[in-house]
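Dear H.,

Thanks for agreeing to be a second pair of eyes. The structure we're designing against is below in token form, covering all 90 positions.
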């Protein structure tokens, strides 16, 4: 499912226009991203939890030349599925 299909699904389920569903989805995604940017967790009970984790700096290898390179530390987004979501897909 892509974003367009998700918007159509939301519009049908909530009986609203596609434009309103798109605004709601974009607002939700922006709120989640802003919260993660601050370092906060976003928990949707039953669905799951979005969080930020720090990946440590490490050494890697360039596969073409075989030289060692430094891979810098960075923050990555994580998602852990909630119990209801896990049950729904199994």
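And this is the sequence the design step returned. I haven't edited it by hand at all.
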């Amino acid at each position: 499912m892509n974003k367009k299909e998700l918007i159509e699904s939301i519009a049908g389920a909530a009986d609203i226009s596609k434009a309103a569903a798109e605004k709601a989805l974009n607002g939700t995604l922006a709120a989640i991203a802003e919260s993660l940017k601050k370092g906060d967790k976003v928990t949707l009970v039953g669905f799951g939890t979005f969080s930020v984790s720090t990946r440590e700096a490490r050494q890697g290898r360039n596969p073409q030349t075989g030289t060692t390179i430094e891979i810098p530390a960075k923050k990555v987004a994580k998602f852990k599925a909630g119990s209801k979501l896990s049950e729904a897909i199994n």
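Two observations from my side: Residues 41-90 form a domain with the HU Protein; Chain A fold (CATH 4.10.520.10). The chain has a mean pLDDT of 95.

Warmly,
E.
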